[in-house]
Design brief:
alpha/beta; four-stranded mixed sheet; 10 helices; globular; about 300 residues; six-stranded mixed sheet
Length: about 300
Amino acid sequence: MEPAGGAGQLLAISDLHITYPENRALVEELRPGTDEDWLIVAGDVADTVADIRWALATLAGRFRKVLWAPGNHDLWTHPRDPVTLRGVARYEHLVAMCRDLGVVTPEDPYPVWRGAGGPVVVAPLFLGYDYTFLPAGCATKAEGLAYAESTGVVCNDEYLLHPDPYPSREDWCRARVAETERRLAELPEDLPTVLAGHYPLDRHPMEVLWYPEFAMWCGTELTADWHRRFRVATMVYGHLHIPRTTWLDGVRFEEVSLGYPREWRKRPGPPGRPRRILPTEDETGDRGTAARIGRGRGGTP
């Protein structure tokens, strides 16, 4: 291994949802803390291609490297989006757009972070979900969906996220898991990893959901052991809009979402600050966050 060093930080944020003007303003103000900072954007940038492009182009112009993993909103074929591509074609369109912007996608070679806390392979993931995080007492997807409908908690993916040409979202998920698993298994065994996707690798973060049935749209049991198999230092995810740190088998799970204005207004501290993934507190001796926000948003992290 090469020695790690440098003043840069590996940062992460997700669920920017810049359709909301307040969130767009936060992205406009977001700046790196150093010239060497990398930023992981773990999905749900926006609902339309134009907004996704604006946000990623803005961030790519400021950070040394930006890595993007798609969220469910990014993959929606929304009625107000003039880009009407569906499923795999939409995803491939977004990948091509990212490459034009210099943003790393799940289809690109995984870069190695060599700053403080490294070297570490940073892998943006696109895996999806397969309805295996079922509500208690439900044995099948049909039973789970019926229960969710009875409670009124049904993800809009059922109407806006199309799996074409796959016959179902779960088929698409299984294909993505198999291909990603193959790539991760080929990584050097002496390098730890930071895996970053929209959904957590394990179900445990869903234990705090107000509506447990929503877990069906939050990942897959197929990745439950990946944090051990692939030498994961930190698993970065979003989607739940519950930013926090949890630990499983000694592995750090970081939920890094901004979320909707009605959610982040209730949280202490200034909104829109990415979470620092590396270097860790143990490596720096402080709890400082990530990036700085532009002037006019004072307060401590």
